[in-house]
Write a structure and sequence with these properties.
Elements (H helix, E strand, L loop, with lengths): L1 H22 L3 E5 L4 E8 L3 E6 L2 E7 L5 E9 L3 E2 L4 H10 L7 E12 L2 E10 L2 E12 L4 E9 L9 E2 L4 E16 L1
Antiparallel strand pairs: 1-4, 1-12, 2-3, 2-12, 3-6, 4-5, 5-7, 7-8, 8-9, 9-10, 10-12, 11-12
Length: about 180
């Protein structure tokens, strides 16, 4: 009889911990194929855009399904402004690519606002970090997040790229945009 009770207690404890593990399960989403990150800006000559070619990232949720961690790394030398290698070299120089080859975003805390996903975190560009809140439209369940966030070169102590002996200069304001396809 004691042995039967012990087995029942054992199975109850195993079932309880299995249930708690399922409740507290974390999910990790990776940035998948077809995702895009790019920067838009203006200059004294024309509007411009630079696409980030190589980037990786993950979004981790806690047991309740809320975002608990966001990690994103973007390779500076993979950026392409579409105007050839000389202009790309100016981008790399402005962003201090030799000393800081990656731009990173690490989110520590999540907030939800009107159905959108908001992540508080730190963006590091050219070795300078800035705390900010990034919002995204979409959902983890749909596997698609889109958004944009305004930043300035000056916030990261970056001198905007210029050409033709300073007659063409990028303006300070930038818009970072993203379309992320997530894979569990």
């Amino acid at each position: 009889m004691k042995q039967v009770v012990r087995k029942q207690v054992f199975f109850f404890v195993v079932a309880l911990f299995s249930g708690l593990s399922a409740i507290n399960a974390q999910d990790t989403y990776k940035i998948g194929d077809g995702s895009r990150i790019w920067v838009e800006g203006t200059s004294t000559l024309r509007d411009w855009q630079a696409e980030v070619g190589n980037f990786t990232g993950t979004i981790t949720t806690d047991g309740t399904g809320e975002v608990s961690q966001v990690n994103l790394s973007m390779n500076v030398k993979s950026m392409d402004g579409g105007r050839g290698p000389d202009m790309n070299a100016k981008i790399y120089k402005a962003l201090h690519a030799e000393e800081h080859p990656d731009m990173t975003f690490t989110g520590q805390k999540a907030a939800t606002s009107e159905g959108d996903l908001g992540v508080y975190g730190t963006l590091m560009v050219g070795g300078v970090s800035k705390a900010l809140m990034v919002s995204a439209m979409g959902s983890l369940d749909s596997g698609v997040l889109t958004g944009e966030h305004a930043i300035k070169f000056s916030e990261f102590n970056i001198e905007p790229p210029s050409a033709l002996f300073g007659t063409i200069v990028c303006h300070d304001d930038l818009l970072v945009k993203f379309e992320l396809n997530l894979v569990k």
